[in-house]
User: What shape does this take?
Amino acid sequence: MTPKNDSGPAISLPGPLVEPEWLADHLGEVRILDVRMEPRSFASPLCPEDEAMFADSPLKGLTGHIPGAVSVPWKRVLGQRVENGITLQGMRPTAEAFQALMQECGVNKNQTVVICGRCADLKELAACTRLYWTLKYFGHDSITLLNGGVAHWIKRGNSIEHHVVTPPPGNFQVNEERTELLADLEQARQTLLTNTWKLLDARTLDVYLGLTAPWIIRPDGWGHIPGAKLFSANLVAHQLGPAYFYPPEVIDAAARAVRINPEAPSITYCNSGVFGSATWFALHEILGNQQVRLFDGSMHQWTKTPGHSVIRLMIE
Assistant: This one.
């Protein structure tokens, strides 16, 4: 049966995560949004260059999407902002831009949205949590994430499609921005002066120590924000095919094992707020700590704004 993606009212959700079996039973009642950093795999076989990228992956050749899913352009999930005269990439989009994007994707007001991606690795899972965070930031409540994404869907024996889905425009409306989910630059600075909020770095150990960094970080900004604790996203989710979040008790235990209090007021960050959204999701949505914010400017904004120091080659 072809899912109709009904535009009716929200349905009851079991939580911030759903399994393939639940989605298979509700295909006709939800809008499925599929977000990928590499969108060609949504509807087409991989080209030779892409195949080479996944040569050693257990998910080599994974293409296609869940029936009825709509492809969300990854670059439009993020936005460009100018703050204090500095142009910043990878930030949350404007309300107008995000509303237009969701309407183009066929999302309606109060409609239940299920977010997924290929989830061949942790980066692809984090793209899903960044879209989840953005939807929630702009006031959409009926939202959940397919744990393990399309990779998990296929692993459980479900069918996929390879054609582009073009839904009728939706009537999605942004609501008042939930600033309690966001940490800005000033709030990140305040962690240097007060012990109330903890900064959690969601990157890997080598990046935290300043041994390497992606292009979005200035060469003189390798390292971490002073006082930040390392809480890598790979401690809250399985990294490879399918990439999925661990159970709540495992996430809680992993945090405490590295001396992170998962119940404390915290600000998560990374390079540009993508992996940071995964740790935000684990703490805020899975564990229920409502005092967790995402610093979407992350190290990109911190290092691009004059006067900010970084710490290298030290674990705090």
Summary: Residues 179-304 form a domain with the Oxidized Rhodanese; domain 1 fold (CATH 3.40.250.10). The first strand starts at residue 17 and ends at 18.
